[in-house]
Amino acid sequence: MPESAMGIDGSAPGEAHAQQQLSRNTSEAIVDKDDHARDAMKYFVMTQPEPSRKSLNRRVGERVQVAMHEARRQGTTDDQAATNAVLQYTKILREEQQEDNPSSYYGGNARRRIAEIQRRRRGGR
């Protein structure tokens, strides 16, 4: 074979040299290697700030509106729904303040606190 037809590593065209055969992807699966676009996107996303949390007043206001809506849905008048929401306001405010400043030690109330957090995540405030 003419020398000009030989590859840089001395192999014939179409032949893989020893290192290529050792690292060959025999399963033909997609290999996450040299994926610069994915890496660039990952680093871009990681440099963005965390989403901000709603203010205390806004969270309390939204929960009071939900309480009013639930009361109306149960057949109460608007005045009764508003009274019910006002009566729940301090409880809602205290719960939201606790969410802002969770204590690091729950003592004997850990199970109750965990159940409360799970209930909130499900929407059963």
Describe the structure.
The protein is mainly α. The protein has a domain of about 50 residues. Helices cover about 55% and strands about 0% of the residues. It contains 5 helices and no strands. The longest helix is centred in the C-terminal third of the chain and has 23 residues. The model has no long low-confidence stretch (mean pLDDT about 75).
Query: Based on DSSP secondary structure assignment, what is the total number of beta strands?
Result: 0
C-alpha end-to-end distance: 80 Å
- Subunit arrangement of the protein: single chain
Major β-sheet annotation: none
Number of helices: 5
Category from helices, strands and their pairing: mainly alpha
Strand content: under 5%
The low-confidence parts are none
Q: Any idea what the radius of gyration is?
A: 31 Å
Overall average residue pLDDT? 77
Please name the defining characteristics of this protein.
125 residues, mainly alpha, 5 helices, 57% helix, rod-shaped
Provide a concise account of the structure shown:
This protein has helices at residues 18-22, 36-47, 56-73, 78-100, 110-122. With 125 residues, the chain is mainly α.
